[in-house]
Design a protein that fits this description.
The structure is a homodimer.
Chain A: H1 9-16, H2 20-27, H3 35-47, H4 54-61, E1 66-71, H5 77-90, E2 96-101, H6 106-118, E3 123-126, H7 136-144, E4 148-151, E5 161-165, H8 167-180, E6 186-190, H9 196-211, E7 221-223, H10 228-241, E8 247-250, H11 253-265, E9 275-279, E10 293-296, H12 299-318, E11 326-329, E12 332-334
Parallel strand pairs in A: 1-2, 1-3, 3-4, 4-5, 5-11, 6-7, 6-8, 8-9, 9-10
Antiparallel strand pairs in A: 10-12
Helix pairs in contact in A: 1-2, 1-3, 2-3, 5-12, 8-9, 10-11
Chain A binds a DNA duplex through residues 6, 8-10, 18-22, 24-25, 28, 32-34, 37, 52-53, 55-62.
Chain lengths: 344, 344
DNA sequence: TTGTACGCGTTATCAT
DNA sequence: ATGATAACGCGTACAA
């Protein structure tokens, strides 16, 4: 089956014996067309089922009304929710969201950015991959003059806006909560400090211990990737070190899940023997046999705000001002079963 | 900051004092250009950092090398994995994947399809929403001559290819497994039969019971949505009916998770008192305190095959043949803790 | 082998 | 208020 041939403004102009220019003006609701012809054009456009050719418009105007979002993985609830927030905010304005995955690989990330630029998107939202150290590919986007917004995982690049959450605060509150519950020796399985979010969570953890006069034990601190398997391995290693601890603050719900599994395998009861707090409030955490205490991040809101920043930015571009806006959201601790020392 | 101005084939042509046409031919490796000028063009193109304008090309050729994927939700591991499979297969061929969510809403689905058509994609992959009954919007895509491929959740529409898994077989095997483990009274919390997958899973469940001479009890069969909350509610209802059962086959891992939670709340032990089998092999199922027996679906493979079907299809279009290919994959049962009557 | 000219569908500019 | 024309960047049929 061959493509159905599209109707253009020329078809309308021929039918009405007017010029294509007039049709264009009428369709764009210009005030330089008589009301009569305007109505006529609109009517026949509808009758012929006219659809504006977005490609031609984009070629002409330079705007595609597409924006790109680059995330490590789309199947993480957190990222999916941020995307949802962006969509909610931008769809009413006529924008379409193109979603790309970096799979935590810088090369992939660079490639996706290149493809997006080539697709002539109007803006890019990005949460950088774990392996992103060199940021040349990101600066290139900025230098092209494409509005660029970091969310959650950012790099410090001048001229780029960002929307993040206060990871420090989230970690501080989570750790303090464990201390207040009576746990004394708190391990921290975090993520790679190359990502600011994990560094900040580590800092929050350390600050909370300091503020409560608890000594930091480097043997109880690890950096692993955000997977269930990594959580299992981390606890195995902790066990091998034979350094007792009675609580675990993880920078990832997945790691916490794996960690709890391994702790139970060693005969520990949660939360009686060992308290556990995760990070992200992934949906499954709420429905575990022992619901997991975790730090929630309002990802939908993050997406909405990122989108708003984008919209501001493109209006600023017109004014030839360059802004660099930094929004930081507050996290919230969800206190559930795994962190109350006396059991629940 | 204003957009950096792009270099075009005209810039190259001016620099080399040749026509733009020759540049175009050289860049497209036509054999109607001398080797010398070809090399020259390629060199200066690289020097000027020339990037082909995808928009202009698309306007001219009618092909964008973009394909659209419409799924209910991107944060379901199953759909995310299918998308991964499509990407893997299509990216090497130069295609870019645009991901859309219907949020299980037919109107949204129709809107997304319309937007995709307007973006001039080269093909569409779709897993229909739960609320999709009227398929006019899908037939419209087909009638536009855009290659269209269903995956997992399909509708019977002539001229549309599909890649699905054998849900009947998966359910039959899961139910048979429970029977062989010694469970006698097996409840089934399925999904809305408007979706073929859930109807087929129901059919497989019924067939397995029949083949083992177990009577069907309609009171033990429900249709709910695929969420943890729905699983909780469903088991609550089952309890209220006061009809004993010793196993639960759910058409969704999320429902199984909620169901188990509620069963435990009523004092039942899993799997000793009640055996449970889910469907989809979501990642979390493996790491629960009691790992969940579930039916796995090879979603990445499904995506790869769907992409291959698409590639075949576009080559067939050239030959003006219309094909309708139906691929059915086999599911696999992952036997874990929640279905062994004696405990593990 | 290379150049000229046109068209893809739209909007903006300049006339009328 | 409307029309003619150029331009966005590219590929290609036709001419040279």
């Amino acid at each position: 089956m061959r493509q159905k041939e599209k109707v253009t403004i020329y078809d309308i102009s021929k039918k009405l014996n007017i010029s294509a220019a007039t049709v264009s003006r009428a369709l764009n609701d210009s005030n330089r067309v008589s009301l009569k012809t305007k109505e006529l054009v609109l009517k026949t456009a509808k009758a012929l089922n006219y659809q504006q050719n977005a490609l031609a418009l984009a070629l002409k105007s330079g705007r595609t009304f597409n924006v790109g979002v680059v995330v490590p993985y789309i199947n993480h609830t957190f990222f999916a929710s941020v995307i949802r927030g962006i969509e909610e905010e931008l769809e009413p304005k006529g924008y379409h969201v193109i979603i790309c995955q970096s799979h935590e690989d810088v090369n992939n990330e660079a490639k996706q950015l290149k493809t997006l630029l080539n697709t002539h998107i109007d803006g890019i939202f990005i949460s950088v991959s774990k392996t992103t150290e060199d940021v040349k590919h990101i600066e290139e986007v900025r230098d092209e003059g494409i509005p660029l917004i970091f969310f959650d995982r950012k790099k410090d690049i001048s001229g780029v806006s960002s929307v993040t959450i206060n990871d420090y605060e989230g970690a501080y509150n989570a750790t303090t909560h464990l201390i207040e519950q009576g746990y004394k020796k708190i391990a921290h399985i975090g993520g790679d400090h190359k990502l600011q979010i994990y560094k900040h969570r580590y800092d929050g953890y350390v600050a909370a211990l300091n503020d409560h006069n608890i000594a930091i034990d480097e043997n109880l601190i690890m950096q692993v990737s955000s997977t269930v398997e990594a959580g299992i391995e981390a606890v195995k290693l902790l066990m091998k070190r034979k350094i007792a601890f009675d609580a675990l603050f993880s920078a990832s719900d997945y790691v916490a899940l794996g960690g709890m599994r391994e702790l139970r395998a060693h005969g520990f009861k949660i939360p009686e023997d060992i308290g556990v707090v995760g990070f992200s409030n992934e949906p499954f955490t709420k429905y575990l046999e022992r619901p997991l205490t975790t730090v929630g991040q309002t990802p939908v809101l993050m997406g909405q705000i990122a989108a708003q920043v984008f919209l501001e930015q493109i209006s600023d571009v017109k004014k030839n001002v360059q802004v660099e806006k930094k929004v930081v959201l507050s996290p919230e601790l969800y206190t559930r079963d795994t962190s109350s020392k006396k059991g629940s």
